[in-house]
């Protein structure tokens, strides 16, 4: 009887596969989506729309939104395999690919996914430091005039951002980031709304489509497509098993993507209407807006707080991958397994692991150093979008759907899905070419650490 009670207490803390029970709902999942999606992408949308124009710009935003929503539905149904309700859980994106598509595809997926995750954390480091610098520059411009040379180096602020992330990276469980994600989501709404409000206040007759050569326009258009694609890529394993995860994730996807697309359209279109062809690459830090400087400062503070949370959402899977592999490789190692309790006033006992502290600190330092070497906002954002969008948001979800649903080859559904994947591949290649050209152009004049 006693052993049965122990089993019941044990099973109440675990899901059907023996892992710790997840506590997430579609609301918390939506918060994670908004946190991850509305980030550095929204800051470049006025510039991206200015390169594509009034017709192609909004169409590109809607196209990427609809495609990502469609493929996220396919991905949600593959969470449990072979049955979407009672099948075995695929606890990570890579595990899902391995179980459904096989080992070779699994390795390709891992390469694409972790390149995107690592690249995104580097991009967030760049963007956060730019916003920190913008706060200092805004005060300088307000005091000495808009023509003043208010140059401020990004490097010290990248280091500050890295120090904050080193501390937050010691959070051992992704579920414990829910509060951080909600705060970050509120921040994203805050700075998006400030940008929208300032754009509305500024809107006037602006010259559109001039001041650049035809060749520059083509390259910028390609890069703009990558910037928009950067907006849409996410997955997670925090949803509790009842109600079924695929239904909750679909609800979260619809809500999260609808919210982000609404803000993207407002930021992109109103920013373009306000600045025309002179839209800055980062519309809150490029000083299209100088006054009221305190409101611009608040917007940039919101950006920094949001990116602090977004960095953690994107970097936790990287942490877990390395830590799981090392724990399996050296299961008897005390540095891997031993945890120490540290009492923190008003917080409680905090679990500290030596390997986790060392590895996560080294990772954050790595992202900061790379960010210092490549501080090219728009080009980096565009390249990240190109790297991530087709393989992670289109190719693997559609291929897994075809296998799981046993869609006959050369049927209408099969052909339609393949055409969608091919179209998105072309878009990805075009965006990558434009972004690489932008990085090459930036490197010709950039001198690191100066």
Automatic annotation (TrEMBL):
InterPro entries: AA_transpt_TM. Its main location: membrane. Residues 23-439 form the Amino acid transporter transmembrane domain. GO terms for biological process: amino acid transport; auxin-activated signaling pathway. It is a multi-pass membrane protein. GO terms for molecular function: symporter activity. The chain crosses the membrane at residues 26-49, 55-75, 177-198, 252-273, 293-314, 361-392, 412-440. The keyword Ribosomal protein does not apply. Pfam families: Aa_trans (PF01490). It comes from the Eukaryota. Belongs to the amino acid/polyamine transporter 2 family. Amino acid/auxin permease (AAAP) (TC 2.A.18.1) subfamily. Carrier protein involved in proton-driven auxin influx. Mediates the formation of auxin gradient from developing leaves (site of auxin biosynthesis) to tips by contributing to the loading of auxin in vascular tissues and facilitating acropetal (base to tip) auxin transport within inner tissues of the root apex, and basipetal (tip to base) auxin transport within outer tissues of the root apex. May be involved in lateral roots and nodules formation. This is Amino acid transporter transmembrane domain-containing protein. The lineage of its organism: Eukaryota, Viridiplantae, Streptophyta, Embryophyta, Tracheophyta.
